[in-house]
Specification:
two-stranded parallel sheet; 11 helices; 11 strands; globular
Length: 421
């Protein structure tokens, strides 16, 4: 199998940190990694529309000094060994097998691509890896399987034998870990559930990130600490009115009892630390206002489709609060989701551009395809700012001086879904 054709915008720079990314989609994780300092990436996805979106945005990479090679292909038959020696393997595999809103067939789902992430690590021999998936992956039905995946990532060279069941393989990997053998190539693996709202994204979106570093690079990986808080937003809205003043709107009457505010609406002795959660108004308030069925001439993908409806338990996002999770839906338009609640109980669809803003994509990032296809691409994406926040310490670790492997280097402890981090 041939390697993808390079479409670099700048071939003169010295190569820096390189990556191979699987299940790229619209490129949120890839763009965040590029902003963090990964200078060259091979991007692999089997969705022609997503690949078209990636190609449409190659010109946007100049500002982040990165180059991409795009390969539109199914990863199940891809030969990753052609990229042996790459610095990082990155992937955001399909979430439907584990999503609370999906089929939840787990490892039996034909869309389950985590085994191919493990295979990519095995064949590429990277210095580190970064994987993203839904929080549902940590739910009790998948506890053993998640532990199995992380064990395989710790010891990618200890392959599953022919005829060996995955639970048997898991038990063998646990024994290998218990021996703490320094002779086995291994990675130290860390995971954490992060909420995008805590990192400046105007959306409540909880996702699991799994990061691994080769044992001679580092023993642990430090996830970035949150920079934005719910408490600070409440403080700026109801204690100082700074939020309303900033937007030039009158402060509404305060609700005495609101599940959203809870005890946080009580007076503070001092301002909460950090920045305030960003709201829907913060993210999209400056976009041109459109009537339904009309498109903006100056802003790409900004068109308001008619026909939005609200369903019980699936109401739209509130303008002056962090957005609900942007979803892909089976056909790109999940019922009642990806909408904005209006006065009088009315709702309207968010435009593709508004959803992209809520996913922290820049305005010059153009999405290709029909409305449904674009909404699906945006809904499946990793928020760019969140991806960047996680990739920054990963890049820093890879740029640091590598330490020789030592028999005294402690292995990572078993990564269990109910661990506290």
């Amino acid at each position: 199998m041939k390697a993808p054709t390079t479409t670099s915008q700048d071939r003169s720079r010295e190569p820096g940190i390189t990556a191979v990314e699987l299940c790229v989609g619209a490129g949120g994780l890839a763009l965040g990694a590029a902003r963090a300092g990964i200078s060259k990436q091979v991007l692999i996805d089997n969705d022609p529309r997503a690949c078209e979106t990636l190609r449409e945005n190659l010109k946007a990479l100049v500002s982040v000094q990165s180059s991409w090679s795009i390969c539109c292909e199914d990863i199940s038959g891809y030969d990753f060994s052609q990229h042996s020696g790459v610095d990082v393997v990155i992937g955001g595999p399909p979430c439907q097998p584990f999503s609370r809103g999906g089929s939840r067939r787990g490892w039996t789902d034909k869309r389950e691509m985590l085994p191919h992430l493990v295979r990519a690590v095995r064949e590429c021999h990277p210095r580190g890896f970064l994987i993203e998936n839904v929080r549902g992956l940590l739910d009790p039905p998948f506890n053993d399987y998640f532990t199995y995946v992380t064990l395989q990532l710790q010891f990618p060279g200890a392959e599953r034998r022919r005829g060996e069941r995955w639970r048997e393989h898991r038990a063998r990997l646990l024994r290998l870990q218990a021996r703490r053998s320094a002779s086995e190539p291994r990675y130290n693996v860390t995971w954490r559930t992060l909420n995008a709202a805590d990192y400046g994204v105007a959306q409540r979106r909880e996702r699991v990130f799994v990061v691994g570093l080769r044992a001679d690079i580092a023993e642990t990986f430090a996830f970035p600490e949150p920079t934005h808080t719910r408490e600070k937003l409440i403080f700026e809205q109801w204690e100082t009115s700074e939020y309303w003043d900033r937007h030039g709107v009158a402060r509404p009457g305060r609700l005495s009892r609101s599940p959203r505010l809870g005890t946080d609406c009580l007076p503070h002795d001092s301002p909460p630390l950090g920045a305030a959660w960003r709201t829907v108004r913060d993210a999209i308030g400056d976009l041109p206002r459109l009537s339904r069925g009309r498109a903006s001439r100056g802003i790409a993908n900004h068109c308001l489709n008619p026909g939005a409806r609200s369903y019980a338990g699936h109401e739209g996002s509130q303008l002056d609060w962090v957005a609900k999770t942007i979803k892909a839906g089976r056909h790109g338009v999940p019922g009642g989701e990806n909408t904005l609640s209006m006065r009088g109980g009315r709702v309207r669809y968010l435009s593709v551009r508004e959803c992209a803003r809520l996913q922290s994509f820049p305005d010059d990032w153009v999405f290709s395809g029909s409305w449904c296809s674009c909404m699906r691409q945006v809904g499946n994406a990793v928020p760019v700012s969140l991806a960047e926040a996680v990739a920054v310490p990963l890049v820093a670790a890879l740029k640091g001086p590598a330490q020789p492997a030592s028999p005294k280097c402690a292995l990572a402890k078993p990564v269990l879904p109910n661990s506290k981090h």
